[in-house]
Design brief:
about 290 residues, alpha+beta, five-stranded mixed beta sheet, three-stranded antiparallel beta sheet, 8 helices, about 65% helix, about 20% strand
């Protein structure tokens, strides 16, 4: 009997140890799953931000927190050359401008004693500028200068784009606060004021981005052409005729009479005193004799 009781107790101890081991393994498994889930939650935003790629309306590619854009270059050109026939060359340059999708924004023609010149300001796609200049310079018989400038504004564009994205995120958070968390009138007014300030900053940044995009998309070409002509002496100085001088003399005389009359009116007290002295001069003379 005692032997059976000992065997039963030993069996119960072994069974309890097995259940404890199974429970420990189950808890360890659950704990490892919980840790893995927590790690996944912590890493999910970072993984999503580093793997997702988005393209916005500005043509920028957002990969993670870095903004990758095509190189932004502001190109300008100034060129001056001599042509045989200014009128014909101007027509050809206008045709070339239309061919390469350019727009003439300014035209200024001037004449001197020895030359006639025409200065044109043209806005055209940056990719077409070099080809246009090569075609336009075929009209040249003598090139005075060619100046081409390229300004890289890629870093500024990326920086502004990043600040714009940050401002929009902050604005959206304030909008969310206004919708769900604002309880009092004070909270609503503060949130609306913050949104207004941030929206003004966003509009200013967007305006700068549009300016850079416009400058990089279209290049500015200042083209000055001129034609030398035979020297022409400047016209003689204009001389007035006798009848013109006579007419002006009558006008000047009438103005003089008016000035004299006005002067006499202004000094009437002196004239009155002078008249009294003349009228009473005999009386004054007799008074001095006595």
């Amino acid at each position: 009997m005692i032997r059976y009781a000992g065997m039963l107790l030993l069996t119960l101890l072994v069974f309890g140890a097995c259940q404890g081991n199974a429970s420990y393994q189950s808890e360890a498994k659950n704990e490892s799953q919980t840790v893995a889930y927590d790690d996944l939650v912590d890493q999910a935003p970072e993984s999503s931000s580093t793997s997702s790629t988005q393209t916005n309306n500005n043509g920028t590619s957002n990969q993670g927190n870095a903004i990758q854009v095509a190189r932004k270059i502001i190109k300008t050109a100034r060129i001056k050359f001599q042509v045989k026939d200014l009128k014909e060359s101007t027509k050809k340059i206008e045709a070339l401008s239309a061919k390469y999708e350019g727009l003439i924004t300014n035209m200024d023609q001037q004449n001197t004693n020895y030359s006639i010149s025409n200065s044109l300001t043209i806005r055209m796609p940056s990719a077409q500028m070099d080809t246009f200049l090569a075609e336009a310079e075929k009209e040249s018989i003598h090139t005075n200068y060619t100046k081409i400038n390229a300004q890289d504004v890629t870093e500024e564009f990326v920086d502004i784009s990043s600040r714009l994205a940050t401002k929009k995120e902050v604005r959206d958070r304030y909008v969310e606060i206004l919708r769900k968390r604002a309880q009092t009138v004070k909270d609503i007014l503060e949130a609306e004021d913050k949104i207004r300030v941030i929206q003004e900053e966003i509009e200013a940044i967007e305006g700068r981005l549009k300016y850079i995009q416009n400058k990089t998309a279209l290049s500015t070409v200042t083209l000055e052409i001129y034609q030398e002509v035979a020297y022409v002496k400047a016209p003689a100085v204009y001389k007035k005729s006798f009848w013109t001088k006579l007419q002006q003399g009558f006008g000047n005389g009438w103005e003089l009479i008016q000035d004299i009359a006005l002067g006499l009116v202004n000094i009437w007290p002196l004239l009155l005193l002078f008249g009294l002295l003349i009228a009473s001069r005999k009386s004054i003379k007799n008074w001095f004799k006595r």
